[in-house]
Recover the amino acids of this structure.
């Protein structure tokens, strides 16, 4: 591959992220403006949360301003704090860790499975101690982690599981939505995701424990029992618990509702184009492997990840794609190698998989033109 980056006219460049935009978005945003109320908890917020419950089968769904915010809510609801340990895969976005570090918990990194780039159940069990309170399972790139094995380990040790499903909205594992296998799940609706409202997320609550549901309700109400006032149980609200402002406004909820209604069309388009691209790439003797999901997963194709043989190959591949106007990115610097690792996290001696060089995930605009351009440039 030629590693020289040539200039490509801006009009021909294919960016890493192109948000899907439902045809109903403008009308729904107009409804919000005409209603005169932009605050959280309006008609579109309630409708979107009801849709999420029906779509996922969760006990409860709460719109949040971000996936990070949803995980911070989970940390507050579980009462995590100093002295508690939370196990996180080292190959993930930093917010997977900071959401729990912010509560005062100690982050314990575990290794990943090289076949999936997600949490390795065997290494996970080795990291559990008497201080372990929670495990965060990350679903990478539209694939799903081995939730059956992870949840079995959690049950044996009596710890909670939280699913960071930021990249997995619309995917399924054995017919179930990621985010529904554990105590809590967290989705992202950031502009870089399959479904987006610019900036947003959702907390998925799967436990039917009344005490836990009440804690979540108070956290949503910024640490008060205002929900009891609305239900008529009390005449005035009081400060009752930790909490904060986690909910988005009605503009975001309206955009999300339009996107939820268009989800199947969106996913069908992504899957059709991704399948077309992968089939052609895999016919060729290329110096990288396409990361595929396991048989239990139906991916949303958040992106297509390619695992290069070494750093030089990864750099050459990225330069080649960039020179042909196709944006791509290298994922992630493992958290145990990050500058913050010693302050807030417990770093063990060896994490052999993410220490291997060369992993590069290449994301593309899911259009037929993008597929043809990738196919043509790979032949050169």
């Amino acid at each position: 591959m030629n590693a020289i980056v040539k200039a490509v006219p801006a009009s021909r460049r294919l960016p890493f992220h192109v948000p899907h935009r439902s045809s109903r978005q403008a009308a729904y945003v107009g409804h919000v403006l005409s209603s005169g109320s932009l605050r959280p908890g309006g008609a579109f917020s309630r409708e979107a949360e009801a849709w999420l419950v029906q779509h996922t089968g969760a006990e409860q769904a709460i719109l949040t301003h971000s996936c990070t915010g949803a995980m911070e809510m989970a940390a507050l609801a579980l009462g995590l704090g100093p002295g508690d340990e939370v196990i996180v895969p080292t190959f993930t976005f930093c917010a997977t860790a900071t959401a729990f570090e912010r509560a005062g918990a100690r982050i314990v990194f575990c290794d990943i499975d090289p076949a999936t780039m997600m949490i390795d159940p065997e290494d996970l069990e080795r990291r559990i101690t008497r201080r372990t309170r929670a495990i965060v399972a990350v679903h990478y790139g539209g694939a799903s982690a081995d939730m059956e094995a992870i949840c079995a380990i959690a049950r044996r040790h009596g710890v909670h599981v939280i699913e960071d499903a930021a990249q997995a909205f619309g995917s399924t594992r054995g017919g179930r939505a990621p985010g529904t296998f554990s105590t809590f799940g967290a989705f992202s609706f950031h502009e870089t995701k399959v479904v987006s409202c610019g900036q947003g997320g959702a907390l998925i609550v799967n436990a039917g424990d009344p005490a836990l549901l009440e804690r979540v309700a108070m956290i949503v109400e910024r640490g008060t029992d205002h929900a009891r006032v609305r239900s008529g149980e009390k005449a005035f609200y009081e400060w009752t618990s930790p909490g904060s402002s986690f909910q988005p406004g009605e503009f975001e909820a309206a955009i999300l509702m339009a996107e939820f209604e268009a989800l199947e069309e969106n996913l069908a388009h992504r899957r059709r184009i991704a399948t077309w691209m992968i089939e052609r790439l895999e016919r060729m003797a290329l110096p990288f492997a396409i990361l595929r999901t396991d048989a239990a997963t139906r991916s949303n194709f958040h992106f297509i990840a390619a695992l290069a043989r070494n750093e030089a190959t990864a750099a050459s591949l990225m330069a080649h794609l960039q020179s042909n106007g196709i944006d791509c990115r290298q994922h992630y610097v493992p958290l145990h190698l990050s500058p913050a690792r010693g302050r807030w996290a417990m770093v063990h001696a060896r994490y052999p998989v993410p220490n291997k060089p060369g992993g590069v995930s290449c994301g593309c605009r899911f259009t037929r033109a993008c597929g043809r351009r990738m196919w043509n440039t790979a032949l050169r």
Observations:
- The chain has two domains: 10-19+262-379, 25-261.
- The longest strand covers residues 132-138.
